[in-house]
Amino acid sequence: MSDITVVGLGLMGTALANTLLSAGHDISVWNRTREKMEPLISAGAHGATSLGEAIQMSPVVLISVSNYEMTSQLFGMDDVVGQLAGRSVVQLSSSAPKDTVDSEKWFVDKGASYLDGAILGAPSDIGNDNGQILICGNEQSWNSCEPVLRCLAGNFQYLGENIRAAATLDMAWLAQRYGIFVSTAHALLLCESEGVSADQFAKTVAGDRAKIIADIVHSGDFSKPSATLSVWNAAHEHIRKHAYDMKINTEFPDFVSNLLTRAEDAGYGDEDIAAIIKILRS
Ligand code: NAP
């Protein structure tokens, strides 16, 4: 048996799997698109031929797919659901707090223990000292999974058994980020209107995150995102829905949602989120 199975090898899942391998763990991997498994198998991971087999291969199953709907579809399949008893499931896909309650209940009903986590950073932050991951759920499960998970972030915090905690703080962290993205795009438009370059903005008054966006706009190359604009839009949808569900003000999430959806509709879904400036320019 390997130490841990990683399910989902997108941008984030691949970073998680590579970091676990580099830390010396014996890992198994599964991804819908098999080609994404090949580099990891070459680096020493065990490749599963099916999701059911992937679950059988390790006591801990780490999930990094697009969203919880996807997790439900995949793990609810007839040949998969029966493999879950006795496994420790660690969900690192993004979601809204209310989904974490249903997810925990669903996995526990199938005989698995469940931890719910949130990654506050990009794939390049995984395994770094400044990488931050929040996790919550069954304490016993955390104690048994911690030795293998610890390598994934310098700042890995267990928040206790309130299963909504990590997703809530993730949304709060992200809400700040969307504000920075939109305000930076506006700051860059302001500079453009006065003939001041994005480079000058980056080198003078831009904060750390704004500088990254300004550098991308300055280069004109939006094609190498650490997370695609579509992924950002999907994550933002949780924030927008949460505002409606909890009856808090929706003006900011509605505005951001409208902007990101227009950018996706314009064909920028696979680009960096800095591409929202192209929508604002028009
Ligand atoms: P991604 O690159 O788009 O990868 C999505 C993953 O989900 C892939 O493994 C994909 O499989 C799988 N998937 C999608 N639809 C599927 C389906 N119908 N059946 C089976 N598998 C399916 O996304 P990512 O950036 O890795 O993000 C993964 C999770 O991490 C998301 O919840 C995201 O919010 C969260 N996250 C990402 C970042 C980031 O910076 N990237 C940061 C924090 C949190 P295929 O390869 O077959 O398409």
Labels describing this entry:
282 residues, 12% strand, binds NADP nicotinamide-adenine-dinucleotide phosphate
In a nutshell, what does this entry contain?
The protein is of the alpha/beta class and 282 residues long.
- Strand percent estimate: 5-15%
Q: If you compute it from the alpha carbons, what radius of gyration comes out, rounded to the nearest whole angstrom?
A: 20 Å
Give the structural class: alpha/beta
Ions, cofactors and other ligands present here are: NADP nicotinamide-adenine-dinucleotide phosphate
Your description of this structure?
There is one protein chain. By secondary structure, the protein is α/β, with parallel strands linked by helices. The protein is built from 13 helices and 8 strands. Helix 2 (38-42) links the parallel strand 2 (27-30) and strand 3 (46-47). Helix 8 crosses helix 10 (208-219) and helix 11 packs antiparallel against helix 12 (251-268).
